[in-house]
Design a protein that fits this description.
α1 packs antiparallel against α2 and α2 packs across α3. The longest helix is centred in the last third of the chain and has 18 residues. The chain has one domain. Helices cover 74% and strands 0% of the residues. The protein is mainly alpha-helical. It starts with 8 loop residues before the first helix and ends with a helix. The mean pLDDT is 81. 13% of the residues are buried. It has 4 helices and no strands.
């Protein structure tokens, strides 16, 4: 990822899980990326998602309405 400075393995894991979670909104996909359980991803990284979920829903609704 552009602009990311060198980090240890745990930091890389955090960045990867957070990035996948923000991009997909899926705890399952983020858990695959870091090889952990969706429950653990939700517990540790779920705080990064609430506002983004609303934005994702708005994008989907806008696409639906513009196609109609």
């Amino acid at each position: 990822m552009e602009g990311l400075l060198p980090h240890g393995p745990h930091n890389v894991r955090d960045v990867l899980a957070t990035h996948v979670l923000k991009m997909t909104g899926s705890y399952q996909q983020a858990s695959y990326a870091i090889q952990d359980t969706p429950e653990m991803v939700a517990k540790h990284y779920g705080r990064f998602l609430p506002e983004d979920k609303a934005a994702m829903a708005a994008q989907i609704l806008n696409q639906v309405w513009s196609a109609a």
